[in-house]
Amino acid sequence: MPPVKKSTYHHGDLRKTMIEVSLDVIDEKGVDALNLRGLALLAGVSSGAPYHHFADRAELLAAIAEEGFELLESAMVAEGERETGDASVRLAALGRAYVMFATSHRGHFRVMFRGDTHSAKDAALKNSSDRAFQLLCDAVENCQIEGTAPPGDPKPLVVHAWSTVHGLATLCVDAGLSRIGIEPEILASMITSMTSQMFSAMARPQIPNTSGLEQSGSACCQSMPKRPT
Amino acid sequence: MPPVKKSTYHHGDLRKTMIEVSLDVIDEKGVDALNLRGLALLAGVSSGAPYHHFADRAELLAAIAEEGFELLESAMVAEGERETGDASVRLAALGRAYVMFATSHRGHFRVMFRGDTHSAKDAALKNSSDRAFQLLCDAVENCQIEGTAPPGDPKPLVVHAWSTVHGLATLCVDAGLSRIGIEPEILASMITSMTSQMFSAMARPQIPNTSGLEQSGSACCQSMPKRPT
DNA sequence: TGTACATCAGTGAACGCGCGTTCACTGATGTAC
DNA sequence: TGTACATCAGTGAACGCGCGTTCACTGATGTAC
Q: CATH second-level architecture of B62-203?
């Protein structure tokens, strides 16, 4: 085996490198600045090379999003498993993982929640996002079973939980927080305490009594994707 | 005065029309689909005409964002003034206005919170967004004065409030909610109840005791823009 | 162990479209006199 | 009230770059024999 040679004809793992380089560019200049020619140049290959790995630009974006959802799922699973207590504590851990993921994977997060990333055709991307989302649904329903979340249609609760962490994550990623002088150093402790507070507030039983949604009577998370058994 | 003539040489108010047409395109195809040539065609003028009103594409986007922040401010002021009770009730009204604005002005909202819209040069845009943001800061501080929000650094409270409504607004606008079967018809009542619950939960005095932020001791909203007096 | 061959993953030149932007020119409108 | 002129806001042709994408070709690698 020869020593690591920088300039071999074959790249090694161009697919992986393209994604890495893309994330760098997104971090620095945003998703709009992504272009395959420029990325190929950064990856050290010619402009045609990426087409052996991605059919087109959209497929690269979809691959980044898919990887992101898989990383998010892993992070949520790992953080949830660290909490062995109440289901509500576990739910807060998922929320914490969500926000922490967004801040530590800004490039992924931006692509994942970009409207035009998700084409109806891409089943793999849909599956990966469904799995991550299902973790949240399950955690909310477990809170209901455990009695730490109000019974009934879990949809409003899921929306509440998701929008809470998604808003914080979005503001963190888009630097919306810098304008009010939030230092990155204090962000971590802030995320932890805020997600816990938000979710514990959500779990208070008085919520459904004022939600105005009981009368909808729809089935429990009927449209939620289910994990394969 | 001749009857309204469809094809006069002078358009009338091309600037306004360009913005309107842009919002239609954003609604249908997203911000990425905006291009000045196509917009000019839709507005019924030649491709060079818009340049008498906007120096370039970025200036058009900035104009849309600025108009959006002005509309948002108006909506928040109007909704806040309808509530004459507690400061905390007024804060919830602002949150409701924020989410309702996002759902009824999707195009504006998308441009307003797009990372690349805000260039440091555009003072008018910065002013309009600062004013809207200041409404939220003032409302939070009024809750503190009134005693319905915990004392101390208001920053975490402002972040909490903002991220809550921003997350819900983002999910509404990006159709993230459709995947869990939230019907548009029930969204309105949901927004009202959720923002109220979220903000009343936020205002509970136990929050700062667990926020892990007291020790930061930073000045109250020191970086927040102040309204001109 | 060497040779032939298939296959994979590169190169780099080229094509061509879309679109931002410019520019000389022109029709409409307002105003001074 | 008409005329001259300035100015504003259009036209539409053209320029040119950026970039997605293609394609014939080629170097590297793996495998059968």
A: Orthogonal Bundle (1.10)
